[in-house]
Amino acid sequence: MSADGGTDVLAAAGRMALAEALELRERHGRPVRVGLIGAGQMGTDLLVQIAMMAGIDVVAACDSTPERIETGYAMAGARCRKPEVVARPADVSQAIARGRLAAVQSPDLVCRAPEVDVVIDATGNPNAGALVALTAIEARKHIVMMNVEADITVGSYLADAARRAGVVYTLGAGDEPTSTMELIRFVRTLGYPVVAAGKGKNNAFNVDATPDDHREEALRRNMNPRMLVEFVDGTKTMVEMVAIANATGLVPDVPGMHGPVAPRAELQNYFCPKEDGGVLSKKGCVDFSLAKDVAPGVFCIAEMAHPRLRERMNDLHLGPGPYYTFYRPYHLTSLEVPLSAAAAAIHHESHMHALAKPVAEVACLAKCALKPGDVLGRIGEYLYRGYALTRPDARARRALPIGLAQGARIVKPVEKGTVITWDAVELPEGSHIARVRRLQDEMIGD
């Protein structure tokens, strides 16, 4: 190894499995250096989780309320760097060099800090997430997105920009999309066609849900009512399944998907073609189950046509086929995200990213009648919910992508239960994600 143990250690780590690579980097004082954007619920989880791991370290963090970073540090304990509030690039570098956690209010300071290897976006805001990702990529930093709403809107452009910059763009491990992607890759690597893939929906399904309806439950579960409604009204499920679609080429079979009450033991009997007793009009779809014994798991339905394979699967007590369920019974949300940061920095690996051309879109469906002058709020509030469509269907309907909705002003009446169209809204001035979406449409040729 070299005198400082630097370059050779990094090269050696790149040839190891992730656990061994992190241990090696820990021993030689060369951890993966993370810059965290957003210190809310997800960001706090990350501070706590990374503090427990070897070979990875959060060296800078950004939040509009610096006190949140201090709160996260207090929860993480002594292994986490102590926050030091700074406001200039030189001060960020000096704080990190002193072993402190540089705490800032500007994402730009984190994304451009020379000491940061990989940036994690935990803002939860599509517009902010798009800007964070672009800034990190321009600064030649790997970027881990926990912001699936931004990914389904501009992920193809961001993945291409990262490729051109020589860095990694990836969704974070642990959420349903990346957990499902593990199964899809496993099945495809073995050469089996994917018939369907998806998740179990965690909460009740009420498309008309509003924060007022669920405030008490949210407080009981220590959640923001709006965030709870994202799950209840189906928006989060639509977003997650479209992320899988755009990363794999699988598509929603029908607008909004089927969402049957398909029990864990019978997933393969539901998510197969109609002629074989299922609900699908074709193979190669994303969907979800409302059965209580599926959530919080994810699944992939594979087809095994060869009789020898079916004989072996039956011998292994997995059924007669030809359709088989591969199932992961858990996903650890933000707790797995550091694995994506480490894989990006050490192996230059993306756990999941959009294809060059997306195949699906999440449209905005009006929860109530909208009139000119109404301003669309955040996802999970009162005026709209997500609705999964194939990309050709979304284009034919002129559907407004959900990642562009926040802050848009209604300029034409929209009936309840109908798709909000591009010509029914006026987007807010200076929208970062709208600018990136235009770049993506130009890249694709739309």
Structure description:
- It is a single chain.
- By secondary structure, the protein is of the alpha/beta class.
- It has three domains: 31-172 and 334-347, NAD(P)-binding Rossmann-like Domain (Rossmann fold, 3-Layer(aba) Sandwich), CATH 3.40.50.720; 176-330, no CATH class; 360-444, Type Iii Antifreeze Protein Isoform Hplc 12, CATH 3.90.1210.10.
- The chain has helices at 7-14, 18-27, 41-51, 66-76, 89-97, 107-111, 126-138, 148-165, 176-189, 211-220, 225-232, 235-248, 267-270, 307-315, 337-347, 391-397, 432-444; strands spanning 32-37, 56-62, 83-85, 101-104, 118-121, 142-145, 169-171, 194-200, 251-252, 285-289, 298-303, 323-328, 360-366, 384-390, 409-410, 425-426.
- The strands form four sheets. It has a seven-stranded parallel beta sheet, with helices on both faces.
- The protein starts with 6 loop residues before the first helix and ends with a helix.
- The model has no long low-confidence stretch (mean pLDDT 95).
Write the layout of secondary structure elements.
Layout: H1 7-14, H2 18-27, E1 32-37, H3 41-51, E2 56-62, H4 66-76, E3 83-85, H5 89-97, E4 101-104, H6 107-111, E5 118-121, H7 126-138, E6 142-145, H8 148-165, E7 169-171, H9 176-189, E8 194-200, H10 211-220, H11 225-232, H12 235-248, E9 251-252, H13 267-270, E10 285-289, E11 298-303, H14 307-315, E12 323-328, H15 337-347, E13 360-366, E14 384-390, H16 391-397, E15 409-410, E16 425-426, H17 432-444
Parallel strand pairs: 1-2, 1-5, 2-4, 3-4, 5-6, 6-7, 8-10, 9-10
Antiparallel strand pairs: 8-11, 11-12, 13-14, 15-16
Helix pairs in contact: 1-2, 3-4, 7-8, 7-17, 8-12, 8-17, 9-12, 10-11
